[in-house]
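Record filed below.
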Amino acid sequence: MKKALVTGATGFLGWHACMALQSRGWTVTGLGRNPEAGAKLEAKGVLFVRGDLRDEGAVSRACAGQDAVFHCGALSSPWGRYREFHDINVDGTRHVVQGCQRHDVKRLIHISTPSIYFDHTRDRLNVAENAELPAKQANAYAATKLLAEEVVFDSLQNGQEGLILRPRAIFGPMDTALLPRLMRANETSGVPLFRKGDILLDLTYVDNVVEAMLLGWEAPSEALGQAYNITNGEPARLGDVLAELFDMLGVRLNTREIPYPVAFGAAALMEWSHRLLPFLGEPKLTRYSVGVLARSGTLDIAKARQQLGYAPRISLHEGLKRFADWWSAGGQ
């Protein structure tokens, strides 16, 4: 029986990866920080190890005896201290890589992000893996995930089997970030819209990402050592996605059209004040979030289709329906 370690197992993607691997006969160990979610994993037959990516020893011990490591763990947020992002996303990834090397893990599947392609100052459509990157990354998350890729690529060039996936805007049941953020905005001040919602974006249903991870395990040698874009392969207008989602939820869509310069300036002011007064937490608006909602950004997934055999199984419509059904049932 094959053995796998999933980092970030108590998070959104990591949880789904654990469930999928177990359903396919793997013996699964989940590394995570949330003991309540860990107890739920254990109730489903996953061996839960409470640990932090910043703890080199804990990560190394979790890698021992594994055939594969699926590195989903990361600090993913539009706001926060750079040092914390670096400690988790860069140093944490280095600990995973070192654990794989120390314990002869056969294959490492590293989850990165296509956020590295976008500074959100302009539209970028059909972006391929070899596209030119911005001179400056959009935020600390993107900057540290790019550095983490460098750590992984270095290991892949020095004997470690594996590859990197860059899934875009993951959504589905148990999502606490992407769609729920928009839904909270809808309940309060309204979802901010720019260009009347006429921007193109890619989303990726979580099960499709997990399928890509499993394809990474099965990938032939010639497909290894590379990065792959992953999406649903269905670029859609933001306005259309919102309308469909809220119709499924039976909730009135509350939007507000804001001129981009006004929103960008307000976001910059909020960021300044929240840096000055850290106890305020995350600003309601950041320049990054304004850019995400105001600029088109889509990916080319031809490489994943051709080299990994990736074919999204769950459509955007079906994925939105599954999320809406889960949310309407209580979102647990």
Notes: The first strand starts at residue 3 and ends at 7. The two ends are 31 Å apart (CA to CA). The mean pLDDT is 95. The chain has twelve helices and 15 strands.
